[in-house]
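Put briefly, the fold is written as integer tokens. One such record reads:
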Amino acid sequence: MRRPQIAIVGGGLVGASLALLLQSRARERGWKILLIEPFAPGDSYQPSYDARSTALSFGSRQIYERLGVWQQIAQRAEPIAQIHVSDRGRFGSARLTAMEEGVPALGYVVENAWLGQCLWHALDPELVSWRCPAEVRQMEALGDGYRLTLDDDSQVDCDLAVLADGGRSSLREQLGIGVHTAPYGQTALIANVSPSEDHRGQAFERFTDHGPMALLPLPENRCALVWTRSSKDAERLRELPDAEFLRELQDTFGYRLGTLRQVGARYTYPLSLIESEEQIRPHLVVLGNAAHSLHPIAGQGFNLSLRDAQALGDRLLQEEAPPGDFAVLQRYLEGQALDQQMTVGFSDRVTRLFSNAQPLLATGRNLGLLGLDLLPPAKRWFARQAMGLGARPV
């Protein structure tokens, strides 16, 4: 193939979304887009009880509607009708409802495999080419772009390289781009569980002295669990027999959904706030988890990355300059600065506040939750953050 204008390193959900955002006008700009991905996407969606999932904000739905893929995604997207926020053993709690916010849902929970299939099938092969399975081993800055050396020793030159290869990006390190890391001292345990009662589209965020937990609604009356504990305790929970695990989870979560009857495969990973010290260079953009990895409890990470991708795609398509032009990339990053600061700050502060067992802080946050439920302006602000609309005008 001839030299692509844009090479996206990482064809996962963020990379594929960016390719879809760009292809709308790539033909008239004469652009070719290349996706480089080490793991070949499956030919068809395969249902699985243990499927990993992503919480999409209402703002993300709006982006996918604009791209013409939401109707397909929505076939297996479970709407979040209500979010219940509480602190275990204390009086404070708050409820956010889609009805109060005047939206069909506060957000949606979608299996990653299904979301990926919807995005990949929407890509136009005349505009978006794949190198898959393939891995970029080396990136070299040129005067007018980047040269990518792949694991088969072939090379690709491009005007703009987008680094979207995840939070543990080895290429980011190879390029000498530092990261700021702030460990939470917690490990996330991820699993799907089934309650005896209908979840009715309810999402729960529950804060405990040992760390926050979230239970999000999935199709087939399953729930996606994110349970943060100390590293040692998370590994202990992961190894427990199913019945013992469910008993501990039930004791922590309570009986708002009746009895928790089934749990699938359990996975653990340590948690840190990771932010890239550079997101742009001439002819280079760092995107997705490679740019910022957030605590999963607030469900903001992918949604922020999707808004970054939308802003980048819009900026590239609006400008007459070549896509790797540094001034263009600076305008993209300046336009996203407020959204990134607000979202990262919101997610980080909420997580740290509700992971602290100090009595004075516990009392203060419970008063805050009570006030959130009683003060409409505060509740509106919190809801807009949760819906991914916080940096947009009301």
In short: Residues 190 and 389 are 26 Å apart (CA to CA). The radius of gyration is 21 Å. The longest strand covers residues 179-195.
